[in-house]
Amino acid sequence: MGIPRELRNWGVQLRSPQPVEALLLSNNFTLLDCEYHAPELPVDETWTLQYGQIPLLKPNCSQPAATEFHSPMQVAVPDKEQRAGWPWPAQQASHPCLRPRLTRTYPFHILLWRWLGDSLSPSYTPLNATSSSSSSSTTTTTTPTLSYGERYLVDSCGLSLESAVSVSKKLQLLHGIGLGDPQPVIECFKAYGFADTHIGKAIEKFPRLLRRRVEPNLRPKLDYLIQIGFLGQLLPDLISKDLFILQRSLDRLKARHRLLWPYLGSEERFVKGIFRYSWLFSRSFQKSLTANLDLLAQEGVPHSCVGTLIFVQPTAITRSPGRFASIVSTVKSIGVGPPSSPKFIHGVAALSRLSESSWNKRIELCMSFGWSGEEIWSAFRRFPYIISLSDEKMTNNLNFCMDTIKLERQDLITNPLLLHFSLEGRIRPRWNVLQVLKSNNRVGEDIGVVWALSMSDKSFLQRYVTSYADKIPELLEMYPGDDKEIELDDLIE
């Protein structure tokens, strides 16, 4: 197993070193090129710690000393009284002196501090730890000693022993803090209707949640979410879905609500949109959101159409302002309706799904079937999402429609929605029904195939299936109905 990539070229300066009894690391992390500076030494020294079997280059030592460690919590740190009696110069060879000056490198500086600093607690006993006696060949399993906080997690919200200990360990290693008393936070969540399963999953994903203050931090945010419409079960469901919401400040939540509210229009629509795309509420896109929404306003796009964009393709408004401006400009140049029309915003949504290279590939694919550039733009103006279909779907639908059904290219350009339909769920079954009806002389050869493929599922069943089911019962098996009825028919009118 190699050295973790994040630590290969990472160094931390150390100063004012004090003796620490034992060496470090776990078998999962490695510290390389860790420099320290001490006024007692004439020159700076470099410590190099390797992975697994850890050679440590000590001051004034020409040969590394190899020591293997299995858990970061096995490091034994002497108390302050013991350290006070150790003269630094005399102990420098036998007692490595590491006291990190904390940097902004997260979380590695915290890991170092926990492994090497004053507050490291060696009381944790890993689960499934075994100990062997030199006088006996038997192996005994030690039972972990749970702290009050770990026991409370097990008893109050149903966490397993392993999960409770894991939560405590993550807090110690990643954040340099103990578990403390989790009762206030857990009782707060229960008061707002959070079930044990909600709380347990939240704590496992984000252990530091247990160290949040209830009054100045958690409760005001939960109250605000209720105030803007997340009532009843919606609140715990939202938080369980996206814990980043509770990591944002209350002011940020309010600012994002003020920004999005005018476009979503009502409390019901806002709650529905944020619940579906919670990252719009919790992630930091303020600059991109503001710039892109301002651009749409300058182009004359009404708020209702922007709300449609948020529901159909929310990632569009989080793109870089430069890329978003290019997309809007392209849609305008193709002529997908005026900016005030719903079709324009669907053109923006469709084009936002593609990179420039993907856009060019779709153009090349359509041209390989004989379409000209103007025919592609004509189809795009009628149904913008044609350009965002996968290569496989577009190829299969074009082949079936042109080779099997014998539709003309102009039929598809005029009715590009046909290419969006499911081949196996709609086009092929309907075509088979029409063929059976033709063979039984129930419909004529001049039946409008494009019309039959485009009509709603309910209308097709009534006209071509149930009305002939008494004479041709196999029709019901051939076409039970398209359970994935397209929802874009009304949007692109």
From TrEMBL:
<keyword id="KW-0806">Transcription termination</keyword>
<keyword id="KW-0805">Transcription regulation</keyword>
<dbReference type="Pfam" id="PF02536">
    <property type="entry name" value="mTERF"/>
</dbReference>
<keyword id="KW-0809">Transit peptide</keyword>
<dbReference type="GO" id="GO:0006353">
    <property type="term" value="P:DNA-templated transcription termination"/>
</dbReference>
<keyword id="KW-0804">Transcription</keyword>
<comment type="similarity">
    <text>Belongs to the mTERF family.</text>
</comment>
<dbReference type="InterPro" id="IPR038538">
    <property type="entry name" value="MTERF_sf"/>
</dbReference>
<dbReference type="GO" id="GO:0003676">
    <property type="term" value="F:nucleic acid binding"/>
</dbReference>
<dbReference type="InterPro" id="IPR003690">
    <property type="entry name" value="MTERF"/>
</dbReference>
<protein>
    <submittedName>
        <fullName>Uncharacterized protein</fullName>
    </submittedName>
</protein>
